Amino acid sequence: MALICIYGISRGGELALILGAWFPKYIQAIVAAIPSSVITSGEGDDLFVNSWSYIINLFLLMYVLLKSIK
């Protein structure tokens, strides 16, 4: 079985940590540069929108809705 190493910056770092938590059997190493400490909401025209960011195996991951400062 091939083992996987994941690298992500910012939102990619958030995803790398999520994948490592969900698939520890397959992920050998994670490098997360500047990840969020929580799962954040989806992004749209107003930056943060009230929508899901990640779905894994038809399971919607809960998120923290952030507000834009205008």
Q: What do these coordinates show?
A:
With 70 residues, this protein is α+β, with helices and mostly antiparallel strands. It has one domain (4-60). Helices cover 17% and strands 30% of the residues. The protein has 1 helix and 6 strands. The chain has one helix spanning 11-22; strands at residues 4-9, 27-33, 43-44, 47-48, 55-56, 59-60. The strands form 3 sheets. The protein has a two-stranded parallel sheet. It is globular. The termini are far apart.
Question: What is Rg?
Answer: 13 Å
Low-confidence stretches: none
Counted up, domains total 1
Number of strands: 6
* Class based on secondary structure composition and strand pairing: alpha+beta
The helix fraction, in percent, is 10-25%
What fraction of residues sit in β-strands? 25-35%
**Cα distance, first to last residue?**
49 Å
Shape type = globular
> Which strands sit side by side, in order, in the main sheet?
1-2
Tally of separate helices? 1
What order do the SSEs take from the amino end to the carboxyl end, as H and E?
Answer: EHEEEEE
What do the pLDDT scores average to? Answer: 86
Instruction: Please outline the major beta sheet.
Output: 2 strands, parallel
Brief overview, please?
The protein has 70 residues and is an alpha+beta fold.
Write the layout of secondary structure elements.
Blueprint: E1 4-9, H1 11-22, E2 27-33, E3 43-44, E4 47-48, E5 55-56, E6 59-60
Parallel strand pairs: 1-2
Antiparallel strand pairs: 3-4, 5-6
